[in-house]
Every structure is written in C-alpha cells, then in structure tokens.
Amino acid sequence: MTAPVPTAPVPAGTAPTRVLVLNSGSSSLKYQLLDMRDGDRLAQGLVERIGEETSRLAHTPLQGGGGERRERLGPIPDHAAALEAVAGELTADGLGLDSPELAAIGHRVVHGGLRFTAPTVIDEAVLEEIERLVPVAPLHNPANLTGIRTATALRPDLPQVAVFDTAFHTTMPEAAARYAIDVETADAHRIRRYGFHGTSHAYVSRETARLLGKEPSEVNVIVLHLGNGASASAVRGGRCVDTSMGLTPLEGLVMGTRSGDIDPAVTFHLKRVAGMSADEIDVLLNKRSGLVGLCGDNDMREIRRRIDEGDERAALAFDIYVHRLKKYIGAYYAVLGRVDAVAFTAGVGENAAQVREAAITGLEELGLAVDADLNSVRSDEARLISPNYARVAVAVVPTDEELEIARQTFALVQNETSSNE
C-alpha cells in the first residue's frame, strides 16, 4: 500500500512543510516547490536541453499571487549544473534549498519493479535496486538516478524520497500481471506487466471519487490518461486491478509515437522480411508509430484541424486511436463488473472534447453518455460531462502528478518522523 495521503491542511507552525518535486529526464529537469500546509505551489519550472549549447531554464515564482516567468538561455552541461541553477532561481525568490522549511525532496522514478510498492526513503540499497531495473526502463531510470544523486549531493541532510510510477499498479492480481509465457523465463528476466503513469492514475481515481462525493474505497473507476503517452487503468475501490501498459510503456493504447498493442510476430516479420535490427524495430514501434506513424502528426489539435479540412489519413488515425480506446473501456468494464465513473485526464483527455465524445458514443447500453454542452466547456476544474440520467458518470479530472508526489513524499516523511519520536 502507498503511504497515507494527507486529506486536511497541515496546521500552521508545523515545520518544515515544503517539498521540492523533481522529475529528471535524460536531458531535462522539471520541478515544483509546494507548501504542504495547503498544497500551494510556491514555484515551478523546467530545465531543458541539458548538455547542449542551447540549454534553457524557465522559472516561474508562484507564491503571493505569482510573478513574471524568468528565462535563462545558455549551456547547462549536466544535471548537477541544472539543479544548482534551479537552486539559484529559488534563492532569488526567498525559497532557497537551504531553507529550514524544506522537509524533503520527492523524486519521480519511472520503474520500481515489484519491490517498491510505496514511496520509499532513498538510501544506497534503494539506489542499487533502481539501477538493477535499468534494463526494463533504459530511457527513464538512468535519468531518475542522475536527479537523485545530484539532489543528494546538494542536500545530503535532507530526506530524498522516490515515488514510483509502477507502485500504484502493484496491486494487480497475478492473472492481470502475468504474461502467458514460460514462467521460469519470465521470472529470470523480470518479464511481467508493471504499468506506468501510476501517480496520475492514483491521483485521478481518488479525485474522481471526491467528485462523486464518495470515498475511494466505494468507487470503481476506469481512468484514461491520454497524453503523448497514454494508458488506461481499472481501479476497484482505490486499488488498481488492471492497466494497459506492460513490461514497458509500449503496450496498450495508441499513443503519440508508440504503437500500443501489436502482434509480437510483427517484430519477427520485420527482422526476416525487412532485414531490420532489434534497435531499428525498437525505434519504429516507440518513435515512428502511433499517431505520428499513421498520419505524420502526434498533436491531436493538428489532427483535428486536418480532419476538418478533409484529410483522410488524419481521419483514419483518429478512428484507430478511438477504436483502441473504446476497446479498453469495454474490457475494463468487464474486469470491474460495476463501473461508477470513467475519468479522462492528461493533455488529450482534458482538452480534446472530440476524443471524449467519440470514445463514449455507442456505449449507451453500458450506461455511458456524454452531454454535448458540458463536454464542450473548457475548464481547469474537475467536472462531470455526463447527463444526469447516465448510470455511469463520465468525468474530466485534470491530473496533478507533482502534487501527488509531494503528498506521498510528505506523508512518508511525517510518518517516519512520528515513528522516531
């Protein structure tokens, strides 16, 4: 189980209460500083193109009504330099990393395998296990490790907490998590379905329950995280029982550049007939497939514009995207048996009304419907878009992975502090 998430503001005077959330990519560093007394963001920003001459840091102070975004252009050679630059921007706002109000640094870590089922205070043993998982997350875990080591060097006295994308999905039963391949081979090479986007699925499923005025334990939700990467989950009473991504983030829904579900024999066929190497097939399925492979665009707004102009390739790409999405809604309805809500989230899920409408249309016999007027409203707030008569609620719930990471980090640090007193 994950650490308990604070549901009420932390009393004033309780120190320290700030959490810095870091999301380290191979050449980027996203960050937010939050005050857990009320969940307010104090600052946020992004360092991109780390290691290039054209590095860019964009920083926005948010406390006290916010301030002007500041940009810094020029070479930032590595993650250590990136975090030092971030620390400098925070210090300029009176929010320096040396502040006694900083309780912990929370790190997004993509792959935690089966060992890490909850947020975890990082030590050398944890780092070693994250490193052992690099073969199943070669693009993400090395970057996450770099961010952790950089932050630890800067504040070795501060709790560093890993919050794993895979943790929320570790509640899946073996029937959902196992592939039907030789068990000894699977176990020897850690081949199973892990799932990803777990912090988003956890946050959105809980917020959907709140929107319905119920406890998470009372609600069955299908969560559709639709961004450039996309995944679905079936959540029964607050626990994930199935999810669309598998050993890697390639499995499942059609995505911006990833194929999603595909006959494994396609890879053998490409090797034998097209003479493609394993690396070439990897690039094809992860970077040259999905929407971009079907029509040349992975931006849903551009695809819709092309459809409006009569572009048949764009229309087919949209139809394939929605067809796969609809199949997963139906499959997870069957897995759950009873569905209280379907929740759309992330960039496409929150903003593409046409995707939401198309995915739900035709599912009226399952109690699902979308109100056209409610669906057309653009808002940053969680909201229902289904008519009152619908048996199953359809919701748009903006995800907040940084807040979820901060909550889990802060709850863990509080629990550890209490247990040591």
- The residue ranges in which pLDDT falls below 50 over 5 or more consecutive positions are 1-10
Beta strand %: 15-25%
**What would you call the quaternary organization?**
single chain
Q: Describe the main β-sheet briefly.
A: 8 strands, mixed
How many strand units?
14
Number of helices: 15
Mean pLDDT, all residues: 92
Structural class: alpha/beta
Residue share in helices?
A: 25-40%
Rounded Rg: 22 Å
- Strand order, biggest sheet? 5-4-3-2-1-6-8-7
| N-to-C span | 23 Å
The gross shape turns out to be globular
Question: Which sequence of SSEs, written as H and E, runs from N to C?
Answer: EEEEEHEEHHEHHHEEEHHHHHEHHHEEH
How would you describe the overall organization of this protein?
The chain has 421 residues and is α/β, with parallel strands linked by helices. It has 15 helices and 14 strands. The strands form 2 sheets. Strands 5-4-3-2-1-6-8-7 form an 8-stranded mixed sheet, sandwiched between helices. Strands 11-10-9-12-14-13 form a 6-stranded mixed sheet, with helices on both faces. The longest helix is centred in the last third of the chain and has 25 residues, at 312-336. The protein is globular and about 55 Å long. 43% of the residues are buried. Mean pLDDT is 92; it is low at 1-10.
